[in-house]
Amino acid sequence: SSVTSVSLEELSSALNERMLLMPAVAGYKAQHHLPVEDLSREKVVIDGMRQNAQDAGLASDTVVPFVHALMNAGKAIQYRCLADWLATPQARVHVTELADTRQKIQQTDNRLMTAISQRLMAGSFTEADMAWLISQMTAPGLSAADKNNLLSALSRIERAS
Ligand SMILES: C=C(O[C@@H]1C=C(C(=O)O)C=C[C@H]1O)C(=O)O
Question: In which pathway does this enzyme or protein participate (predicted)?
């Protein structure tokens, strides 16, 4: 149905937009000599996502592996950016405030939970959905394994009963 394809497109754009925000986060951290991994921020993201999931009618426990996969992919992109900037420091991006970028990340996370819940109202993800989603994950710096981990965690998300 059109609801299905609209929510799948929304899921895919929110996912890509989230990944495209990672170079700005990495650029800020490089400039301020901060590590990529920020566990206190990860706790905030997980708690926020659980709340978003619950508000969207999802079983919040089932989104946690997906959130970890999102953050792993986000960190992987950042490490790849940092590695690239060793050879071409002039290519380093962004003087964007971290708080502003994180606010944008939070908005994509909210959209993700809503779109996933909408899509699951029509039933589970199909093989065709998964193949389409993989083909649409075009943000630079994602490996095939990152994409597979994201989709396998996505397929474990359930609506609240
Ligand atoms: C994106 C960031 O970098 C890492 C990835 C996170 C994420 O994907 O949400 C959260 C915390 C960090 O470990 C960040 O610090 O905001």
Answer: Metabolic intermediate biosynthesis; prephenate biosynthesis; prephenate from chorismate: step 1/1
